[in-house]
Amino acid sequence: MENALLVGLSRQVALQRELDVIANNMANIGTNGFKARNARFAEFIMPKAKAEAFKPADQALSYVVDKGTPLDLSQGTIEFTGNPLDVALKGDNFLAVQTPAGERYTRAGSLTVNRQGQLVTQTGQPVMGEGGPITFGPSEYDLRIAADGTVTSDQGTRGKLRQVRFADPATLVNDGANLFSSPTPAQPALPGARLETGAVERSNVKAVNELTRLMVVQRSYQDVAQMISRNDDLRSKAITRLADQQA
Known about the structure:
Elements: H1 2-27, E1 41-45, E2 62-66, E3 78-80, E4 87-89, E5 94-99, E6 102-106, E7 111-113, E8 119-121, E9 128-129, E10 132-133, E11 144-145, E12 150-153, E13 156-160, E14 163-165, E15 173-174, E16 180-181, E17 187-188, E18 195-197, E19 199-201, H2 207-246
């Protein structure tokens, strides 16, 4: 009976983890450039706790192991806005941005200019160009970003957006505000990397799929809870009968 409780608990922990992932995906359906995550699990066969001398032999115990939450880098829908400072990234590239904690990376390409004249994200992080942050003078106008990432104004070229990529995007870590950090150095985007200008990439979360997953996980969690409850009832009855026999 104890083994059944442990197996059930193992499953509930995994389901709770999957619920957290689904909830975060659904909360970011409307977040530009957001990349969904998927929960991954594997079976772990307990190598011990066997008593094969009995008839029949004990069955091997099967537990659930959390294998992480890999990032889904599939392209989100590109939505044209007509804003000359909006860019939608293609492929697996990211924009590099400057934060108090160091360099971070984002796919959110809805850009603007702050009071200091810096090109920034909607949450205020300066966007990095190939030569550092991109800034404009107070009287500059006609700000534009070309398909190759070149940023211009009426005064000429002001820099070029620094696009980066990663050898293993699965190692990227969510760092809040739609940003990612990486334990490995970023690599320059491949030559010829292009942007869709005047557009933004929407979240790649598929609402119908997430709702379906949510219902399946909730149903599975309820089934496991009922199994644990029935097992607890059986244990209580077994203890009661054992006590009656000893009396």
